[in-house]
Write a structure and sequence with these properties.
There is one protein chain. The protein folds into 3 domains: 218 residues, Rossmann fold, CATH 3.40.50; 68 residues, 2-Layer Sandwich (Uridine Diphospho-n-acetylenolpyruvylglucosamine Reductase, domain 3); 127 residues, Phenylalanyl-trna Synthetase, Chain B, domain 3 (Phenylalanyl-tRNA Synthetase, Chain B, domain 3), CATH 3.50.40. It has 13 helices and 22 strands. Strand 1, helix 2 and strand 2 form a beta-alpha-beta unit. InterPro entries: Lysidine-tRNA-synth_C, Rossmann-like_a/b/a_fold, TilS/TtcA_N, tRNA_Ile_lys_synt, tRNA_Ile_lys_synt_N.
């Protein structure tokens, strides 16, 4: 089968693009991307060429830019190019030069797709790139997801050369007498990927001359195993996980039945940002420490009575809210607090989400916030003060819900009302009350 026929067959099998798809080909001018552009042209696909000059290699990079422009003219396709001050971007965003170049490139591609109507971005990765990626992942540490290699499609990013290895690409380019540019930085072993390419992979090829084909078979196995694992994890979500408003509950009894426990629990918690070390620590305290708290960048996990509770970390929307005199409502977390004035000594009973207090005792501005260590109040009906931490224990408020309880605070620092639970004895409506303020929490 001719290279162009294999190219079309691979694109069809992996649903990369169809004859009518408008493709943006990322072309550096190197051997791989030149072959990709040649095959796109030979196969009759509609495409344009995009080239980035990262301004890192002086005249050499400028020559590649000029060469790629000529290639687009030769093929009679649209040409898009841009220059990036990569070092400045890397310094500004505290990135390595390689990561900065990657971000700049993909941001630009995304913009071109929007403005020029491209439906797919074709990248010239091949089988040896996949081998290098897997070896890098193994060196740095990875799970099975890091072993599936570079995927043919990821969103609108497609890789139509993954059916070819480096040696085969060189052979096809030589047979077709295609001109290309040599990137001198590819010969350097300064970067980890280049070290693998020049020092490690050749040794593996000596051990197994059919290295690319062997890896391709391994990749199929790894991808199928990953699919099985993902299906198992999705089934477990329905069996031992439940969602309650903005909380996720995971049964500890269900976790104890998992096998393999560590892997499956990690996969269940991975979407919430928890890393493997947290999972190890968590397993060690499942039977011992109710109340232990673990944090990821986005979520908090609490070991509660018989369950793990996962909640999102509070955002700016959950910060303290100031209530000025005359305001009739404010939003706090998932509630709206309604504030009403009444000239009669109205006493509200049997509604934990509403209370009436003596209006003349209020000192504005009031504050609505979450509880803090050391907070205390005088629960209605009691003469002695009580710490909120003790009150929560007596009321059996779950640990993960304590932070969601709205605490209404007077300007003098007194707690007026523990929303949803109890007002303060000092602010109750009494026989001498002339005017009341009514507070009501309404779930948004």
């Amino acid at each position: 089968m001719l290279p162009v026929e294999r190219f079309i067959d691979f694109a069809v099998q992996n649903k990369l693009f169809e004859p009518g798809t408008k493709v943006l080909a990322a072309v550096s001018g190197g051997i791989d991307s030149v072959l990709m552009a040649h095959l796109l042209k030979s196969a009759g696909y509609q495409f344009g060429i995009a080239h980035c000059n990262f301004m890192l290699r002086g005249p050499e990079a400028d020559a590649e830019q000029e060469f790629t422009c000529g290639l687009a003219a030769q093929f009679g396709v649209s040409f898009h190019t841009t220059n990036f001050d990569t070092k400045l971007y890397a310094a500004k965003h505290k990135l390595s030069t390689q990561m900065a170049a990657r971000e700049l490139r993909y941001q630009w591609f995304a913009g071109l797709c929007q403005t020029a109507g491209y439906e797919a971005v074709a990248l010239a990765h091949h089988q040896n790139d996949t081998i290098e990626t897997i070896l890098l992942n193994l060196t740095r540490g990875t799970g099975i997801a890091g072993l599936h290699g570079i995927m043919p499609r990821n969103g609108n990013l497609v890789r139509p050369l993954l059916f070819l290895g480096r040696e085969e690409i060189q052979e096809i380019v030589a047979n077709e007498k295609l001109a290309f540019m040599e990137d001198s930085s590819n010969a350097s072993v300064k970067y980890a990927r280049n070290k693998l390419r020049h020092l490690v992979v050749p040794v593996l090829k000596e051990l197994n001359p059919a290295l690319e084909q062997t890896f391709e078979r391994n990749l199929r196995n790894f991808r199928e195993m990953e699919q099985l694992l993902n299906e198992k994890v999705e089934a477990l979500r329905g069996e031992i996980m439940t969602t309650h408003s903005d909380e996720v509950h995971i049964s500890i009894d269900g976790i104890k039945r998992l096998s393999p426990q560590r892997l499956l629990l990690f996969k269940l918690l991975q979407p919430y940002g928890f890393v493997e070390q947290v999972v190890d620590d968590l397993i060690s305290v499942l039977d011992k420490h109710a109340g232990r708290v673990f944090n990821s960048n986005t979520h908090t996990l609490v070991v509660d009575r018989g369950m793990l509770v996962v909640v999102g970390i509070k955002t700016a929307a959950d910060m303290p809210v100031v209530i000025n005199e005359g305001e009739t409502s404010v939003n706090y977390h998932t509630f709206k607090l309604s504030v009403l004035q009444d000239d009669s000594p109205l006493i509200i009973k049997d509604n934990p989400l509403a209370t009436s207090v003596d209006a003349e005792l209020l000192v504005y501005p009031l504050t609505l916030r979450s509880w803090q260590m050391g907070d205390y109040f005088y629960p209605l009906g009691m003469k002695d003060k009580q710490k909120l931490s003790d009150f929560f224990i007596h009321q059996k408020v779950p640990l993960h819900q304590k932070g969601d309880v709205p605490v209404l605070v007077n300007a003098n620092g007194d707690i007026i009302w523990l929303g949803g639970y109890r007002p303060d004895e000092r602010y109750k409506v009494g026989k001498n009350t002339k005017k009341v303020t009514i507070f009501e929490l309404i779930k948004l």
